[in-house]
Amino acid sequence: MCKGEERIVNWKFWEQQKPLKDDRLDSISDGLKQLLAATNGQPFEQLEMQIKENAEMINRLSRLQYKMGQELINKVTPIYDNLGDVTLLCQKGQAATELAIRENSNRMLVSTLIDSIDTIDGVMQNACGDIPDEWRTFLKTIQISELDGLARVGIRELELLGSSFNPIFAEAVEVRAIDQLTGQNKAMRPYEVIEVLRRGFIDGEGKVVRKAQVITLTSSNQL
After folding, report:
1. Which residues pair with 201 in a beta bridge?
2. Regions of the chain where pLDDT drops below 70
3. d(CA 107, CA 48)
4. b/e string for 19-44 if b means 16 or more Cβ within 10 A?
5. pLDDT digit string (tens) for 18-40?
6. pLDDT at 216
7. Residue 202 contacts residue 155 (beta carbons within 8 Å)
8. Contact, 169 vs 200, CB < 8 A?
9. 208, 200 contact by CB (below 8 A)
10. 223, 182 in Cβ contact below 8 A?
11. How far does CA 121 lie from the centroid of its chain?
12. Kind and range of the H or E run holding 191
């Protein structure tokens, strides 16, 4: 290929490349125009200043939001604390109610068991020898079971037979003179409880649930 032909080829190659370069310049130019349009034609120095101002405003808003959040937490926290106190009071109230229900149930149970024991005592005292031995044994078994039930809730029978009369634990419904008693194998003393007509009961704290009714002794000259 001669030099003239080589120049022609190179020129044609330049002619092919030139439109591509023009397209790139046009694209860059369009991008700059869009950027300037987005900034309303502001110089880049003003745009940079506006960006800094916006960033500072965002920081101030963030600090304000944090401060408001902390103030809200400080206001809400006592409310939650009060709610905790209310919940605790409700729990205490519920516990007190449950305790009252249990105590009332225990009182009803104690009253029912004592009434049943009294009924069996009355039957056995009034029937004398008319009750068959197997029935007497059966009734005694029931009483033992009922006394055990009372013991489970802290109630026990007062053991007063043979002890000195104490008005704290018993009522003397009858007083007998010592010299009126015959056929006794042991010496009697004044104020001794010789018979329990109705049982007495005491709780675990020493409080009398019910006084016993007893027969006690006195000397002849005190009648």
Report:
1. 157, 210
2. 1-48, 50-52, 54-55, 76-90, 92, 128-129, 181-186, 220-223
3. 87
4. eeeeeeeeeeeeeeeeeeeeeeeeee
5. 444 455 556 655 655 555 555 55
6. 93
7. yes
8. yes
9. yes
10. no
11. 44
12. none
Cβ count within 10 A of residue 99:
10
Q: How far apart are CA 88 and CA 97, in angstroms?
A: 14
Condensed to tens digits (0 to 9), the pLDDT of residues 94-103 reads: 777 777 777 7
Cα dihedral sign for 142, 147, 150, 152?
Answer: negative
CB 196 within 8 A of CB 147: no
Q: Which two tokens stand for residue 83?
A: 């709610």
Written as one string, the DSSP assignment of 79-126 is HHHHHHHHHHHHHHHHHHHHHHHHHHHHHHHHHHHHHHHHHHHHHHHH
Counting Cβ atoms within 10 Å, is residue 215 exposed (0-12), middle (13-18) or buried (19+)?
middle
Q: And the tokens for 216?
A: 């006690």
d(CA 13, CA 132): 140
Which of 17, 101, 145 shows the shortest CA–CA distance to 137?
145
CA distance 175 to 222: 10
The reported pTM is 0.55
Angle at 18 between CA 22 and CA 12, to 5 degrees: 165
Q: Which of 172, 169, 183 is nearest to 223 (CA)?
A: 172
DSSP state of 211: -
Q: How far apart are CA 191 and CA 175, in angstroms?
A: 9
Helices (H) and strands (E) in the chain, counts: 3, 6
CA 129 to chain centre: 56
